[in-house]
Amino acid sequence: MEKRDVTMLFKRIKRVYSLFYIPGAGQEDELRQMIDDWLRYLRGVPVETVNKNLDKYVSNPDNKQPPHPGILARSTADRYQEFLRNSATHFAEDMAEMNTKAVPPPAGLLERVKNSVSGK
């Protein structure tokens, strides 16, 4: 990314998130520092990736706050790994909950199943 890409990104974010802070007139030094910071965080990330991530971020209704650079820098592989990690965590939590609620089979059920399978 280049400085002009970051300024275009700021404009896109501001159009969707009115609360996104962009320093105004008389605060040029602060604006320059903000652009430099975002550029440092997004250095090496293709503009297409940043724009695609912004589109995905904005389209999620749970994202009520403007994005930060780390969200926009993430690759598809990073998001997929997070999805897998979250899925595994939820699965483990569900299994733990099932273990706490599990009850043994009724008395004699195992014998009845064995008898029905063996034909007795």
The value of Rg in angstroms is 26 Å
Judged by helices, strands and strand pairing, the structural class is mainly alpha
Largest sheet: none
**What is the end-to-end distance?**
75 Å
Mean pLDDT across the residues is 90
Q: Secondary-structure element sequence?
A: HHHHHH
Low-confidence stretches: none
Number of E strands: 0
Q: What portion of residues belong to β-strands?
A: under 5%
**What general outline do the C-alpha atoms trace?**
rod-shaped
- The number of helical runs is 6
Brief overview, please?
This protein has 120 residues and is an all-alpha fold. The chain has helices spanning 3-16, 28-42, 47-59, 69-73, 76-101, 109-118.
Question: Which SSEs are present, and which pair or pack?
Answer:
Blueprint: H1 3-16, H2 28-42, H3 47-59, H4 69-73, H5 76-101, H6 109-118
Helix pairs in contact: 1-3
Description:
By secondary structure, this protein is mainly alpha-helical. Helix content is about 70%, strand content about 0%. The protein is built from six helices and no strands. The protein has helices spanning about 5-15, 30-40, 45-60, 70-75, 75-100, 110-120. Helix 1 packs parallel to helix 3.
What are the salient characteristics of this protein?
mainly alpha; 6 helices; 120 residues; 0% strand; single chain
